[in-house]
């Protein structure tokens, strides 16, 4: 006997409706486990941050695929600024329930952009020991951003820095800037 309701697959649920499905305490616990996992396999702060970035890249790749499977009406961006706005707004809302605070373009380098987040969730519940004073766990988020941009056809290197809270420095390949300029010329 079957009920009149059809079963909805988890892949059919839109990501944007997912806010609040996971508790902040659970997120903090899972993220602290990721940090401990990376810390146990690292000998320096730099190595720890690189491992966090690598895990973030895995998450970013899967998240991008999942987003486009669920949001069938979405289109992939081909313009650089539109892609950065997608990361700042849509991606951040999916991940953290709010937009990133700012998006800025570097004055001295056309390849460099900054995404600024005053209070990164990944740093909120982390107590950094004195011997790891420069540790910025937002390198995890930087890995997510890098994967999303690179897998979307905007190869870039993304790093996290302590500045105005946390600043993600996005440095695009020259090919991205050249392609964007050729699209502007059309």
Automatic annotation (TrEMBL):
Subcellular location, principal: endoplasmic reticulum
Subcellular location as annotated: Endoplasmic reticulum; Golgi apparatus, cis-Golgi network
GO BP, sorted A to Z: endoplasmic reticulum to Golgi vesicle-mediated transport
Keywords tagged on the record: Endoplasmic reticulum, ER-Golgi transport, Golgi apparatus, Transport
Domain of life: Eukaryota
Cellular component annotations (GO), alphabetically ordered: endoplasmic reticulum; TRAPPI protein complex; TRAPPII protein complex; TRAPPIII protein complex
Pfam families, sorted: TRAPP (PF04051)
The family this protein is said to belong to: Belongs to the TRAPP small subunits family. BET3 subfamily.
Subunit structure: Part of the multisubunit TRAPP (transport protein particle) complex.
Described function: May play a role in vesicular transport from endoplasmic reticulum to Golgi.
Descriptive protein name: Trafficking protein particle complex subunit 5
Organism: Parnassius apollo
